[in-house]
Amino acid sequence: MKAVFRFCFIAVAAVMLNACSLLEVKLESGIEPLPKDQLNMRVFSRDFSTVFYSQVESAADLIERNTDSIPVQSNTLMWKINAEQNLQHTIFQASPTAAMVDTWVFTEQMAQFFDTGAGKNLFAEQQSVAVEASVNLRDQFERTVQKLGGTNFKKNKEFVKQYVASHPIKDMAFARESAFTDWLEFHQISEFDAVTTFGTVPEVMSDISDRMAMIAEQMPKILGWKAELYALHSNINADEIQRTLTSISDTSAKFQQLMAQSPEMMQSLAVDMRKELTPLLAQLSADTDDKLQQLSVERQALELMVKNERQALEAMVARERAAAAVDLEQISQNAVEVVFQEITKTLKSLILYFVLFLVVVFFAPLGLGVWLGKRMQIKKLSKPALKPATKAEPAK
After folding, report:
1. Residues of the chain with pLDDT under 50
2. Can you tell me where the transmembrane regions are (predicted)?
3. Which of 2, 174, 314, 364 is least crowded, fewest Cβ atoms below 10 Å from its Cβ?
């Protein structure tokens, strides 16, 4: 009897372990991860962003150091601001394929804009610096796409050339639209088949973390460049104010020297100068008050701009958190549904196996014994009775 119970326990344990392994496989397959090629696209795009920021900033700073032109300096700041903001929009898309295609198109648009497009004269004699940096970024991105794209590289390159020719960048604002929809039409891919999964929970959380880190790193720099651009186009000229103060200081020193040499003449001259200079000083005071008031207004405008940018950043972070919460809630709900479905199936299987086990262990031997008893009874009844032996007759 103990051997029977031991066998039952081992059988039930084996069934439970098999069911748990089946449940584990089903749960893993319920949340579809990103394919390997799309993961490679996402990793490469994020790595390329660092190279893009570094080369654009280095080229723009080089141009700014070698020029005294206000328009050229303004264009370098606008290049850094708008190029980096557009790259963030292209890279951080839901689909890694969309990010790859749109970033490729943007690098081609920027190279064409500075080389032969509307921005070919924005940096005067230093235009070649911007052209070289843009072409290097485009070629670098294209070489890596060629390694990842395989047989579709030539077809994708043809699409990029056609799209850039029909959708060029027109000014330093870098206003543009995503090229992913046109890419789907070019390849005759349905929009419903373009994005099949957002990845597993760790992949989604890693994507959100990358976005937050990029925003936290770039936003202070962009705000600083916008402040420099605002100050560059204001009416305050620091060099002119410094020259005026130096001239006043030199004139005062000369007057002091002259007064020491001839006090009487300088006293009379001082009275005349007071009469002559009073209107000038009054005008200078009025101009100074006006400049200070203008400076106060511009400072308030700058504070308002920084405040608006901070609020926009907070709103964007809140939207990203809300979207992540919705995605996590949906994923959790799907996981729970899959768990309960598999548990139900497993319990049904266990009940069936247990019933079969009871039938085999208890009812089968009992039925077999009954059947054998009946067979033996039938054989016993059908066997003929033996006659008693008779004595032999005597011989005559």
Report:
1. 1-30, 238, 385-386, 389-393, 395-396
2. 350-373
3. 2
Is there a contact between 41 and 195 (Cβ–Cβ < 8 Å)? no
CB-CB contact of 134 with 114 (8 Å): yes
Taking the C-alpha atoms of residue 228 and residue 84, their distance in angstroms, rounded to an integer, is: 16
Q: Are 46 and 59 in contact (CB under 8 A)?
A: no
- Looking at this protein, which amino acid is placed at residue 165? A
* pLDDT value at residue 9: 43
| Cβ-contact 101, 54 below 8 angstroms | no
C-alpha to C-alpha distance for 5 and 13, rounded to whole angstroms: 12
Cα(340)–Cα(396) distance, integer angstroms: 101
Please report the sign of the dihedral spanned by the C-alpha atoms of residue 106, residue 109, residue 114, residue 118.
negative
Residue type at position 292? L
Sign of the dihedral through C-alpha 235, 239, 245, 248: negative
DSSP result, 290-318: HHHHHHHHHHHHHHHHHHHHHHHHHHHHH
Q: How does pLDDT run across 14-40, given as a tens digit for each residue?
A: 444 444 443 333 334 446 666 676 777
CA dist., res. 14 & res. 327, Å (int): 37
The pLDDT value recorded for residue 3 is 44
Contacts for 259 with CB less than 8 Å, ≥ 6 apart: 266, 270
Taking the C-alpha atoms of residue 337 and residue 250, their distance in angstroms, rounded to an integer, is 86
Return the residue matching tokens 């400076």: 295
The mean pLDDT value of the chain amounts to 75
**Orientation of helix 96-115 relative to helix 70-91, angle to 10°:** 160
